[in-house]
Design goal:
The structure holds two protein chains of two kinds. Chain A is mainly beta. Chain A is built from no helices and eleven strands. Chain A has strands spanning 4-7, 10-13, 19-25, 32-38, 42-51, 54-57, 65-66, 76-78, 87-94, 102-104, 108-112. The radius of gyration of chain A is 13 Å and the shape is globular. The termini of chain A are far apart. Chain B is 0% helix and 63% strand. Chain B has no helices and eleven strands. Chain B is mostly beta strands. In chain B, strands 2, 4, 5, 9, 10 and 11 form a six-stranded mixed sheet that branches. Chain B is globular and about 50 Å long. Classes of the chains: A mainly beta, B mainly beta. The interface between A and B is medium-sized, with 29 and 28 residues.
Chain lengths: 113, 112
């Protein structure tokens, strides 16, 4: 089954404690990206990756890091989480310019106390 | 900068037709997508316009006019299950690749 898998789905952590949200896709997509969703603000792109070792900032990259060492994985790293990073995070893959379709993971709800 | 504007909320009755508009201000734009999101769920892809004109997929159609920087999603024969949030998303070509910016979303409420 074609899917994008994120972990953890839910996490409560404290300010300053490094955390990583993993994202894996099994569709051999070159394009992967991360979004955060906050009430009234829609989906905002954090980082995206066009292929292995190729990443670029989205609209809200501050406080986040990413890496793309393998095609299937695109982890999101919060080196020192702060309460303003409490949000719902989505990973997505695809984005083929012919079809324009992105496949989203189920989301990771993060709370930073 | 890039921005996509949508109405925040639309209400319609079951069986009706509804149009959700999206206007954008962005340079390097090359395509417009639409996504549906039910409460608590992941966005799911509905439609994509790389060219001007109408794309039809079942009860859903999407339209793009580059000259007007405008697009819309048309939902026909509305059903209660269509109650959800709908997002337009613009693809922008940058030096680094394909940046995707979402609108703030339109909450569609379908009533009996």
């Amino acid at each position: 089954e074609a899917q994008v898998t994120q972990n953890p789905r839910y996490l409560i952590t404290v300010t300053g404690k490094k955390l990583t949200v993993t994202c894996s896709q099994n569709m051999n997509h070159e394009y992967m990206s991360w979004y955060r969703q906050d009430p009234g603000l829609g989906l905002r792109q954090i980082y995206y990756s066009m292929n292995v070792e190729v990443t670029d900032k989205g609209d809200v990259p501050e406080g986040y890091k990413v890496s793309r060492k393998e095609k299937r994985n695109f982890p999101l790293i919060l080196e020192s989480p702060s309460p303003n990073q409490t949000s719902l995070y989505f990973c997505a893959s695809g984005g083929d310019t012919d079809t324009g379709e992105l496949f989203f993971g189920e989301g990771s709800r993060l709370t930073v106390l | 900068g890039q921005s996509l504007e949508q109405p925040s909320e639309v209400t319609a009755v079951e069986g009706a037709i509804v149009q959700i508009n999206c206007t954008y201000q962005t340079s390097g734009f090359y395509g417009l997508s639409w996504y549906q999101q039910h409460d608590g769920g992941a966005p799911t892809f509905l439609s994509y316009n790389a060219l001007d004109g109408l794309e039809e997929t079942g009860r859903f159609s999407s339209f793009l006019s580059r000259s007007d920087s405008y697009g819309y999603l048309l939902l026909q024969e509305l059903q209660m299950k269509d109650s959800a949030s709908y997002f337009c998303a613009g693809y922008i070509l940058t030096g680094g690749g394909n940046k995707l910016t979402f609108g703030t979303g339109t909450q569609l409420k379908v009533e009996l």
